[in-house]
Design a protein that fits this description.
The structure is a single chain. By secondary structure, the protein is of the alpha+beta class. It is built from twelve helices and ten strands. The strands form three sheets. The chain has a five-stranded mixed sheet, covered by helices on one side. The protein has a three-stranded antiparallel sheet with strand order 3-5-4. It has a two-stranded antiparallel sheet with strand order 1-2. Strand 1 and strand 2 form a beta hairpin. The longest helix has 16 residues, at 140-155.
């Protein structure tokens, strides 16, 4: 999810994808997922004209799913061999899915909504406001500088890898220009080189970053921007976090759908949650406080009831069995 104001700043990436310029000015994964890169290489050689046919299908029928966008209705079976083993079984997409995802990366299509979790694709000009599409597009270098400024302002303090690295960057940027961009923002005073205790790499402080105490209280989504870079979370908060939904049950430590609990400027607990719609109850199977955490009873109980209200549930029931869980159940 991105604000529409960011759209012009990402047009340079869309143009790289549209040209299928995978190996030129940036690493392939910055313009498109590897499944799109590998899939388009194959489709360009084996099925010329197929992408245009898919685009015509969306133009006539959109918004539609990838399956509905297949002009010939041809689908591979699960028993068929992978057309490109390098994409992996998980990303062994149907050809129409590769085509619509490529057109999405190129900015020709966008996501108009979802149907049972499936993306609905439509022409970009039929989804995004005309004012956004007509906004003057900055050149690639200026767009990258603005994206880097957004990263720095959002993160507050970060290493170069956290600012723009291909794997963990807030907005991944080309390796060839990332160093130059950072140096330019240091020279302009937007970034201030600093050293963070315990982090050997050079860090950079956003010029307007404020170090006043933070009064926060939140159960964080596993995809919250504060914690999505798990390595950074570990370094800065000494909080090793994994969501656990992909972990086999015998190996889970803190539960299945585990949310960190932010209190002030610390991550102080892990809370496993489950919405039981049948009984309209927010069930809490596990609460695990961090070592030396302050008393969490009242703030955590309040946040759980807020979460239940947001989910449209009537009650909270803590089934976890430890002192904190019992206190939260009976605040």
């Amino acid at each position: 999810m991105l604000p529409l104001s960011s759209y012009p700043l990402l047009r340079w990436r869309m143009r790289v994808a549209e040209r299928q310029d995978w190996n030129a000015e940036l690493d392939p994964e910055l313009a498109a997922p590897w499944s799109v890169v590998a899939g388009m290489r194959r489709l360009s050689a084996e099925r010329p004209g197929f992408v245009d046919a898919v685009l015509a299908q969306v133009t006539d029928l959109g918004p539609i799913t990838a399956a509905e966008a297949s002009p010939d209705g041809e689908r591979r079976k699960r028993t068929d061999p992978d057309p490109d083993p390098s994409t992996g079984r998980m990303w062994n997409w149907q050809d129409a899915k590769i085509a619509v995802e490529y057109l999405f990366c190129a900015g020709r299509l966008t996501i108009a909504g979802r149907r049972n979790f499936e993306r609905l694709y439509d022409l970009t000009e039929r989804v995004l406001p005309a004012g956004v599409l007509s906004t003057p597009e900055p050149d690639a270098d200026e767009a990258r500088r603005d994206l880097l400024r957004i990263s720095a302002r959002t993160l507050g303090v970060a290493t170069a890898q956290e600012l723009c690295g291909a794997t963990h960057g807030h907005f991944p940027l080309p390796k060839a220009t990332a160093r130059q961009l950072i140096d330019g923002l240091v020279e302009s005073g937007d970034l201030i080189p600093v050293r963070v205790e315990g982090i050997p790499s050079q860090s950079y402080l956003w010029r307007e970053a404020d170090d006043r105490p933070i009064k926060a209280r939140a159960l964080l989504s596993p995809f919250d921007t504060l914690i999505w870079n798990r390595d950074r979370t570990h370094r800065l908060f000494d909080f090793f976090y994994r969501i656990s939904i992909y972990t086999p049950q015998p190996q889970r430590i803190h539960g299945y759908y585990v949310l960190p609990f932010l209190l002030g400027d610390r991550l102080v607990a892990r809370v496993d949650l489950k919405a039981d719609r049948r009984t309209s109850t927010l069930v809490v199977p596990t609460i695990t406080p961090e070592p030396h955490a302050p008393d969490l009873t009242e703030p955590l109980a309040a946040e759980l009831h807020l979460m239940a209200h947001w989910l449209g549930l009537d009650r909270v029931h803590v089934t976890a069995d430890n002192n904190l869980a019992r206190a939260v159940n009976n605040p």
